[in-house]
Amino acid sequence: MAERADDRLVRLLGLVAFLDDAGPVRVEELAQRFGVTPQQVREDVDALWVSGTPGYMPDDLIDFDAYSLEGGLVALTQARGMTRPLRLGTREAVALVAALRAMHASPAVQADPGRASVVASALDKLAAATGEAASAVDVRLAGDGDPQVVAAVTSALGEQRRLHLRYVNAADVASERDVDPLRLVTQDGSMYLVAWCLRAEGRRTFRVDRILAAQVLDTPAAEHDVRDPDADVWASVAHEAAPVATLVLASAGRWVAEEVPAESVRDLPDGSVEVRLRVTNPAWLRRLLLANAPDVLSVSPPEVARDAASAARDALAAYGPAPGGTPAGRA
Amino acid sequence: MPANPDGPDAGRLAPARGTPPAERLLNLVIALVNTSAAMTKQQVRAGVAGYGDAPSTEAFERMFERDKDTLRALGIPIVTVDAGGHSDDVGYRIDNDAYALGPVDLTPAELGVVALAAQLWSDKTLRTDMSRAMTKLRAAGAGEAASDAVAGLAPRVRAAGDAYVPLLEAISERRDVSFRYRAASTGQELTRHVEPWRIAARGSGWYLVGFDRGRGAPRVFRMSRIAGRVKVGSRPGAFDVPAEVDVDAMLGARVGAVRRARLAVVPERAQALRARATPADGAGPRSDGRDLLDVEYRSLSAFADEVAAYGQAVVVVEPDDLRADVVRRLTAASGLDATAGAGPREEEEHRG
């Protein structure tokens, strides 16, 4: 797809301002700095070379040293007044400052004073340079987890060391395992550790609030061939090959549709909402239904409904008759 | 200019013919930065490379207006200079004092932090904004980014949706907005007129906090329930934002005192809950072999969700309201396999 004109413009202006300050720079280095191919850098230089002030006579144009360029070195000789780096737009500054603020306040950053101070100084510099007091956008990153667990996980990531975890899964089964941490992802209200599990010999995602204990081991973390450590954390719950479950939720349960890995969400004429999920983990779906049943109008397939209903009946039996002799549920 | 505009290098050497938009914009910026006073539209059309491409005055006007909007959106401060009153005399220039980024001087570690912060957003618009912001910062001479300080962290927030851009613009300029909004309690869509104060992300949701003119009171709106386009009022400075906006208090996410529940838990079960629990004081052994635990919570409904999800493994001993809430969920769940339609349902407290 062709690059947007405004994105290219920002880079063209950026190249001139950077080169004016930096002096001659190799094409490859510019390509890396601006995240484009060396070929693109050469095309950008070609575009700059014919740009300038009205008249466009040789003295009006941005100019480079042609001899250096043949040798792969970009040397700006005339900037036509475009020497200063362009400021950030309001939207850019707001979003960047809000993101830095959210990171600074997050438990994953606060767990390590050194890290927190680097984030704080980056935030201060950006806020000062952009003049953005950014209170328009206020982002809070999730962080429910044992502070000691969060501290152990973040320090293992920083030092690239192996972790020993005690973890309890969605089915409430606890286990012990060693993992090599890859990422600490904050997403959708929770923190997740993406790691290579040595027991399972594969990539696994652990919800941080279900890590009961984490211990940093002396063993360095090994290299693993993990294709996409940044992949969506829902990949651990939802999978396109998994069976489909369909829930119809009352309007008050709409927020459920907004927080689960839904394959599709459809508004029904009566204000209720139909959610289709592909769920690999029946225990996860059972928990979702138990917690939200008052807003669930229907569930299919029937075996999913039966599974949740039978779990609920077992639970009500555990409550026994309520005090005063009334049956449980009418208290 | 070369004499032969149709030569092999025509695209490069003759900006007046088929100039790519990025180069036309670049030439406009250079012209407006270097102009001694200001340039009128006519001077732009006649003088700046690329505008000669416009086949008619109307086409030129459209092109020029669009380009000005594009440049302003990028943060380039184009100002108008009114020379005499006739609209053709209006001149344009770039405010050179406002053009430049202040000195940033990021260390490699700080640039690494900023680069990570730029990854936070999932909206396409915001990602585009962020990649541009990074280009500008790299142009400002920051060195190589070093990611050691934030190794392995991957903070993300869910996409804020189409309402984000118009709402942010409205907040920045203090313009009122109106939009169709689907109420959670009834599922009905109604038009709401709002003075927008803040956009906030909490958990997995995006919210607009503002003053609802129709209700005459501050309100919180879940942005995913805004249907269709947000209409932004024409008048800037239409209202004042209160000096203190307590987003969390308005969302009710963290309000209310900490309360303590006593739970009877099957041995070895509900481990995640146990990690937050303290053994109950002064409680004798239970005949059913369950462990008695005390757990603190704030939100009744969120904690009832969590406890109900454990099914028979966790029974609420006290308080009564929590017990009733959990039992209500379980009772509803126990009927999920009934073929008859669901009975009348109660309204739940606002869940945001």
From TrEMBL, chain A:
<protein>
    <submittedName>
        <fullName>Protein pafC</fullName>
    </submittedName>
</protein>
<dbReference type="InterPro" id="IPR057727">
    <property type="entry name" value="WCX_dom"/>
</dbReference>
<feature type="domain" description="WYL">
    <location>
        <begin position="149"/>
        <end position="216"/>
    </location>
</feature>
<dbReference type="Pfam" id="PF25583">
    <property type="entry name" value="WCX"/>
</dbReference>
<feature type="domain" description="PafC HTH">
    <location>
        <begin position="7"/>
        <end position="127"/>
    </location>
</feature>
<dbReference type="Pfam" id="PF13280">
    <property type="entry name" value="WYL"/>
</dbReference>
<dbReference type="InterPro" id="IPR036390">
    <property type="entry name" value="WH_DNA-bd_sf"/>
</dbReference>
<dbReference type="Pfam" id="PF19187">
    <property type="entry name" value="HTH_PafC"/>
</dbReference>
<dbReference type="InterPro" id="IPR043839">
    <property type="entry name" value="PafC_HTH"/>
</dbReference>
<dbReference type="InterPro" id="IPR051534">
    <property type="entry name" value="CBASS_pafABC_assoc_protein"/>
</dbReference>
<dbReference type="InterPro" id="IPR026881">
    <property type="entry name" value="WYL_dom"/>
</dbReference>
<feature type="domain" description="WCX">
    <location>
        <begin position="245"/>
        <end position="316"/>
    </location>
</feature>
<dbReference type="InterPro" id="IPR028349">
    <property type="entry name" value="PafC-like"/>
</dbReference>
Automatic annotation (TrEMBL), chain B:
<dbReference type="Pfam" id="PF13280">
    <property type="entry name" value="WYL"/>
</dbReference>
<feature type="domain" description="WYL">
    <location>
        <begin position="166"/>
        <end position="227"/>
    </location>
</feature>
<dbReference type="InterPro" id="IPR051534">
    <property type="entry name" value="CBASS_pafABC_assoc_protein"/>
</dbReference>
<dbReference type="InterPro" id="IPR026881">
    <property type="entry name" value="WYL_dom"/>
</dbReference>
<feature type="domain" description="WCX">
    <location>
        <begin position="259"/>
        <end position="333"/>
    </location>
</feature>
<dbReference type="InterPro" id="IPR057727">
    <property type="entry name" value="WCX_dom"/>
</dbReference>
<protein>
    <submittedName>
        <fullName>Protein PafB</fullName>
    </submittedName>
</protein>
<dbReference type="Pfam" id="PF25583">
    <property type="entry name" value="WCX"/>
</dbReference>
